[in-house]
Design a protein that fits this description.
The chain has 240 residues and is an alpha/beta fold. The protein has one domain: Rossmann fold. The protein is built from 8 helices and 7 strands, in the order H-H-E-H-E-H-E-E-H-E-H-E-H-H-E. The longest helix is centred in the N-terminal third of the chain and has 20 residues. It is globular, with a radius of gyration of 18 Å.
């Protein structure tokens, strides 16, 4: 549905992807997400710990054997993390809508990491071939329900039986940013109705994190101990 008019899914995808690219283009360059910022490195370290704990809890400790696709790989930061966790470059695939960000990823990742530009839902990935399919703050940038659904169906199709969609996204709307919307747990369940979902809230609300870390980085953990101040959900969604 677009402005009250129902359009075919294929057309909706093209409209929405063009809108996503335009929304990203409007964002002014900033160091807000630099790892040199104390709130950012604590956010990243918290998420890394959650990923590691999840791998161990599920017995996925032979990381060199794991196949992983990331939807919306950006400049390659998450794929670099998975390389450090022991995944092999030839077992990694990243898809990114924005050519300039994909070019940045190509500069920093090994040549045998597969990188693909364009619509992730049309990515040429063999069905039931992936152990993990990762998305980090992608679905909150997709404002069209049909586009979200098409991407979720593709991600699910790529998974092996027993594999997991690894989901990281924020749960509530940002009243200051109409270009994104929160994805509550009920929506995640609707997108992956056959999945077995284990979810946890993590990540101190970034505006709060920036303010308290400006006073002292240790305050991140203090405020993050309050569950209602955590704005993101990390979920493991298993394909039974």
């Amino acid at each position: 549905m677009r402005d009250g008019v129902k359009v075919p899914v294929s057309d909706a995808v093209q409209v929405e992807l063009a809108a996503v690219a335009e929304r990203y283009a409007r964002r002014a360059p900033t160091d807000r997400y630099s790892l040199l910022q104390p709130d950012v490195w604590q956010l990243v370290h918290e998420r890394q710990r959650a990923w590691l704990q999840g791998l161990v809890a599920r017995g996925l400790t032979d990381t060199a054997a794991l196949q992983l696709v990331e939807v919306g790989c950006g400049a390659g930061g998450n794929l670099q993390e998975w390389l450090r966790l022991g995944l092999r470059p030839e077992h990694l695939t990243g898809c990114e809508l924005l050519p300039e960000r994909l070019a940045q990823a190509r500069e920093v990742l090994p040549v045998n990491v597969r990188l693909v530009a364009g619509d992730a839902s049309t990515l040429d990935i063999a069905p039931a071939s992936q152990d993990l399919v990762l998305q980090a703050t992608v679905f909150s940038s997709l404002l069209d329900d049909a586009v979200q659904q098409q991407l979720a169906e593709a991600m699910w199709r790529w998974l092996k039986p027993g594999g997991h969609v690894l989901w990281y996204d924020f749960t509530m709307d940002n009243p200051r940013n109409p270009d994104v919307r929160g994805v509550p747990l009920r929506r995640v369940q609707a997108l992956f109705p056959q999945g077995r979902i284990h979810a946890q809230r993590i990540t101190l609300a970034p505006p709060i994190a920036r303010r308290v870390c400006a006073l002292h980085p240790a305050l991140y953990s203090v405020f993050n101990a309050l569950p209602w101040l955590r704005t993101h959900r990390l979920a493991w969604i298993q394909k039974s």
